[in-house]
Amino acid sequence: MTFGDFETVLELRRYTLHPGRRDELISLFEREFVEPQEAAGAHLFGLFHSPASPDQFVWLRGFRSMAARRAALESFYFGPVWEEHRSAANATMVDSDDVLLLRPVVRGLASPPPGSGVYLSFGASPSAFAVFETEPSPNDFPQLPVRTDGPFTVSFSRSAAPGSELLEPTARSVLR
After folding, report:
1. What is the rounded distance in angstroms from the CA atom of residue 14 to the CA atom of residue 97?
2. Which residues contact 66 (CB under 8 A, 6 or more apart)?
3. Can you give the pLDDT at residue 137?
4. Which residues form the NIPSNAP domain (predicted)?
5. Which of 30, 59, 105, 110 has a CA-to-CA distance to 172 between 20 and 30 Å?
């Protein structure tokens, strides 16, 4: 399997954090959660903060299939790393339920064009290097809610479009 195979099922996760706690969560997340999730079968494409939203953490997690998603989430969230660190992570969060479950329309997260900064748009963007739409399969890991008020189209580009949001990568983000 290649890096691009993890674009089959994507979670766009947008966490609202208690004021001033974003860097604390990012530090914990990058130190404790990246490798164990990837060992479980997820791929963490992007870890971001938004200059426009200082109390938000945005991240992307990809899977090879819905079945692989369920297996990876069960392995991680029922495992020892989450058990040890979940209280510290949850203490930074006001809301962790703004989650979209997506499938690709145009693949491109694995090989974005050169440049810096990633712009997230809800809707089609003419300059998008990757476009996703709502995954119609039911959420088979109900312990982690996903939004059902869609459908949604999500675009990633290197340039701003009306209504887009600049995402700046953290130190461990693969998508830069």
Report:
1. 8
2. 9, 135, 137, 140
3. 97
4. 11-105
5. 105
Look up tokens 């088979």; give the residue.
140
Q: What is the DSSP letter of 64?
A: S
Domains and CATH numbers, the chain: 3-169 (3.30.70.100)
Residue holding tokens 């079968």?
41
Residue 169 structure tokens: 């990568």
Over residues 99-140, the pLDDT tens digits come to 999 999 999 999 999 988 899 999 988 899 999 999 999 999
Q: Which two tokens stand for residue 75?
A: 């392995």
Using pLDDT thresholds of 50, 70 and 90, give the confidence band for residue 2.
confident
Give the pLDDT confidence of 142-174 residue by residue, as tens digits.
999 999 999 999 999 999 988 999 999 999 999
